[in-house]
Write a structure and sequence with these properties.
The protein is mainly alpha-helical. The chain has one domain: MFS general substrate transporter like domains (Growth Hormone, Chain: A, Up-down Bundle). It contains 18 helices and no strands. The longest helix is centred in the C-terminal third of the chain and has 34 residues. The chain is globular. The protein starts with 10 loop residues before the first helix and ends in a 9-residue tail after the last helix.
Length: 453
């Protein structure tokens, strides 16, 4: 797609895309502060002993649904349009967020998390929409908006999950209501309300970004054949010299980053005498909110100047190594100076991740355009592998934690964070396989503030 024939987007459309991405991350992160307690409550009622296993399964259920269906939604958006796919995801969020809060069994909770992931391919489609409506000069800052939505969603999600759990124990108005019977329903309802508002806004303010009639197939193709073709196309992206390398870099980064989602709280909730910090669920929600706020600042204010100074290609390995440093240092925090030391640690993590997300999205989009691939297929493949990493990150991290937490240094609770650092180093090394593209459009012409039109 050239600059001459792209469809520009108004402020309303960009706001909708921002909200769609933000709500997706709220859905992923909202359960982090209270998940362990929900599992303990339901497990006690059902006589289930393997708490850690169910925590891992519920953390990964959402991502597993995305892993299976992101390539389908991405490719489908190339055929029927971005707008209907984005709205389907918002409907799924609205229904399944609330249903999860009403869970009375572990299997029902797992099913609701999985179905929320199945219905939500919004991140890949939102990125493809940005690619449809942006010129090369607009691309980096508009991808930065998506990255900022990541940061805001990752701020709001854990904060809502931590602050509004068990409301009947904290505010009398919720006593003897459904929120006392289901103590984790209120944060889920709040997320559903946000999703409903975005759905209404999308209906009125989000135009289609592609020529749907031109995208229609010339002959009828069965859904099964579409599934096979979409999956084959997505897997084929991994074999492309430039695009494949970029996708693998992102996958390893996200694998290392999402390990933190389960083991960070396992570490901070651990008793200080055992090496932990003795944090509560509110403390953990606020810590993740701090990471999100720093990420917003990075993607809203720093990404433009940094891109002009270094170029996207060089920023990618730099951001990976900075994130890896922060992840590796987490278990060396001392309880007596926890908040001060963690501020340095989460600053490394937030800035590194905040630079990495829009930089990789921008570079992958440019590679796809250069090689003539459909953005929906490319972004769907990336998001599918990213979801795959989000499946095995928390689950694998929990397994490593259980195997090492009671042992002696260095094979103790430090080990899983060392694994995070190692994955980041491997990801940074793989950036050597990413082809170099001219940086002039984004490094010299990109405005420092995000464009909204």
């Amino acid at each position: 797609m050239s600059d001459a024939n792209h469809r520009d987007a108004g402020k309303g459309a960009l706001v909708v895309l921002f909200l769609v991405t933000m709500i997706d991350m709220i859905g992923f992160g909202i359960i982090i502060p209270f998940l362990t307690y929900l599992v303990q409550d339901l497990a006690a009622e059902q006589g289930v002993a393997r708490i850690g296993l169910w925590v891992g399964l519920l953390m990964t259920g959402y991502s597993f649904g995305q892993f299976l269906f992101s390539p389908i939604w991405g490719s489908l958006s190339d055929r029927i349009g971005r707008r209907p796919v984005l709205m389907i995801g918002l409907v799924g969020n609205t229904v399944f967020f609330t249903a999860f809060g009403l869970s009375s069994t572990l299997l029902f909770a797992l099913a609701m998390r999985f179905l929320a992931g199945v219905s939500n391919g919004n991140i890949a489609v939102a990125r493809a929409y940005i690619g449809d409506v942006s010129t090369p000069k607009q691309l980096a800052t508009r991808m930065g908006l998506i990255g900022a939505a990541f940061g805001l969603g990752f701020t709001i999600g854990p904060f809502i999950g931590g602050e509004f759990s068990s409301p009947a124990d904290r505010w009398g108005v919720f006593a003897d209501t459904v929120f006392e019977t289901f103590p984790y329903l209120l944060p889920c309802v709040i997320a559903s309300v946000l999703s409903t508002g975005s759905l209404v806004l999308a209906y009125f303010k989000l135009p289609e970004s592609i020529d749907v009639e031109a995208a229609q197939p010339t002959e009828s193709v069965s859904w099964g054949r579409q599934f096979i073709d979409m999956t084959r196309n997505s897997v084929a992206m991994l074999g492309k010299p430039g695009i494949g390398a970029m996708i693998w870099v992102a996958t390893l980064f996200i694998l290392g980053f999402t390990i933190m989602h389960s083991v960070f709280i396992l570490y901070t909730e651990m008793d200080a005498a055992s090496g932990g910090l003795g944090f509560s669920e509110q403390d953990n929600g606020r810590m993740f909110a701090m990471i999100g706020l720093l990420g917003i600042f990075t993607q809203g204010a720093l990404i433009g100047p940094l891109t002009r100074r270094f170029g996207t290609r060089r920023l990618i390995p730099m951001s990976i190594l900075l994130t890896g440093l922060g992840l590796t240092l987490i278990p060396y925090t001392q309880a007596s100076m926890a908040w001060l030391q963690l501020f340095f640690v989460v600053t490394c993590i937030a800035i590194g991740n905040g630079v990495f997300q829009p930089s990789t999205s921008t570079y992958l989009t440019r590679l796809a355009r250069k090689d003539g691939y459909d953005l929906g297929v490319v972004m769907g493949a990336q998001e599918s592998l990213s979801a795959f990493a989000r499946i095995f990150g928390p689950l694998g991290g929990g397994i490593v934690w259980e195997l090492t937490v009671g042992r002696e240094f260095p094979w103790d609770y430090h080990t899983v964070f060392h694994v995070c650092g190692l994955l980041m180093v491997i990801s940074a090394v793989l950036t050597l396989r990413i082809p170099r593209l001219p940086e002039i459009n984004e490094a010299e012409s990109m405005p420092s503030a995000p464009e909204m039109n």
